Amino acid sequence: MLLLSSVSAQTTTFPVGATTVSVTPLATNLSVPWELIWGPDNFIWMTERGGRISRVNPTTGQVLPLITVPDVVTSSEGGLLGMTLHPDFTASPYVYIVYNYNDNGYKEKLVRYTYSAAGTGSLSNPTVLLGGITANSTHAGSRLIILPDRTLLMTTGDAQQRPEAQNTGALIGKVLRLNLDGTIPADNPVAGNPMYSFGHRNPQGLVRANGKIYSTEHGQDAEDELNLIEPNRNYGWPTVEGNCNLPSEQAFCTANNVRAPLYSWAPTVGIAGVAYYDHPAIPEWRNNLLAVSLRGNKMTQLPLTSNGEAVGNAADFLSGFGRLRAICVSPQGRIYVSTSNRDGRGNPAASDDRILVLENRAYVLATNNARAAAFQLWPNPAQHTVTLHLPGSSSGATVATLHDALGRVVRTTDFAAGQNDLQVSLAGLRAGVYVVRATSGTEQFTRRLVVD
């Protein structure tokens, strides 16, 4: 593991190959931050286990509370957990959260709130999409992500009812798939069943990268797991922990089509959140997963192969801050990590819990004027859709963002590999002036767009 070198009382650095990464506290005195996501408003959205949802200014670190969810009940590992935002946030300003509550016993539910940006912002109109899920003070999961097909994935722990992880009719020990209104997609593996994959113990990380879905999962003692999630696959728990390497595990894996992990941590490190990194700011981490751990007190770099189905040589970073739980990446290539030292199992410093920002301060985004001039939009003005044209081959993965007059991101979409033309829907956008920005490797192209 690479240790941090001290630069000042506030900032430390560590090397990643030829790149120097700085680590600076952004926000302090938090209480068990559980989820961090980069929002379409260019703020960090955060949950804290006690029930508070906030927006965090990534420049100043100011925490802007939105709500404390009234019926959240914390118990050991339980409380307010994962969160995700609707991908068309301007037209559908929905915030999805999962948390524990009491209802004739300890339970878990998925709830959708509606966001209003008026004033300092607020959340209202809670709508239960899936409730009554068996829960326990430990092994609650739970992360959320929304896929491009507008379905939602939700992880659940086994709630200490180990055999239920293999019961495809139970909601625990699973990755679940739902429509954004809480209904069950018609193309789920089992008709009328939210189950997407099963045989999970306590998956606490979930991310989509290069068209694939990855999850990080707590093992019991022997191995934590990084899994490639596939529909209707069995991941082995409770018979199998980690790899299929014991005689009893091998027989079960063969008989039950068990998907072995891409990577395992042995012994367990309490692996938690995971994010995908593919930005030129830290070139050594391009096409990597970055996973943070609680007991392990570290961040692990997991290089993906070109097809995303295997992991190369892993490396550990970011020691010295204690337990680490959540991680997200900004479009500018900065990485935000939360500590979890006030969760009853850590040794909190005076300023804990914190959000840390990792960045390469020497990185400057390059712009080629000639190529930038060849970045085109049509039609412009536009009403329903606009086509983006890239100037020839790009220098890396290309992300296109549409910004309103206040600079807020109102659309985000990706160019496929080798794709030069991309059609973007303008549905739900108000008439006005917008800015379209395409970030491709080390280049960035910008154009003004008028929506009628």
Automatic annotation (TrEMBL):
Domain of life: Bacteria
Residue span(s) of domain Secretion system C-terminal sorting: 377-451
Pfam families in alphabetical order: GSDH, Por_Secre_tail
InterPro entries reported for this sequence: 6-blade_b-propeller_TolB-like, Glc/Sorbosone_DH, Quinoprot_gluc/sorb_DH_b-prop, Secre_tail
Domain Glucose/Sorbosone dehydrogenase: 30-345
NCBIfam families membership: Por_Secre_tail
Protein name per the record: Glucose sorbosone dehydrogenase
Originating species: Hymenobacter cavernae
Lineage: Bacteria, Pseudomonadati, Bacteroidota, Cytophagia, Cytophagales
